[in-house]
Amino acid sequence: TAAAEAAGGLYTRGTGVGQINQPANGQIDANVVAMAAAVLTAAAIAANAIDGNAFAQAAADKVFGSGGATLAELPQGIPSATPTMRAALMLFYMSLRNKVTITATELGVHNDAAVKIAKSVLSDDATTFQRDEMISGA
Question: Does some domain include residue 117?
């Protein structure tokens, strides 16, 4: 091992030149103060590497998926009690943008092609008006 150490191919435990000051427990001593001055400098970071727009886009990507992606309309079916952020936002958006029908007994939310995707039963006994949980529009 002395020959390998001398050739620069092996570090051995010890306190001499080229040796690692490492006790038997696997701990390695390092001079962090000496490293701190040169390891990460302003010049090493690209100008505007992380700016507000990049952070906002990364946050949006975490919530909605890939950057700039459009949200597809929901298919006909029962809206989930635990939807993804995309599904929750799209049901709300569709109920504002698209056709909504309301009769004495039903509220219906439609897609862009006017197909009822979800509906809710309505009732009124002259004392209490009730809108039930959304179900499939089929």
Answer: yes
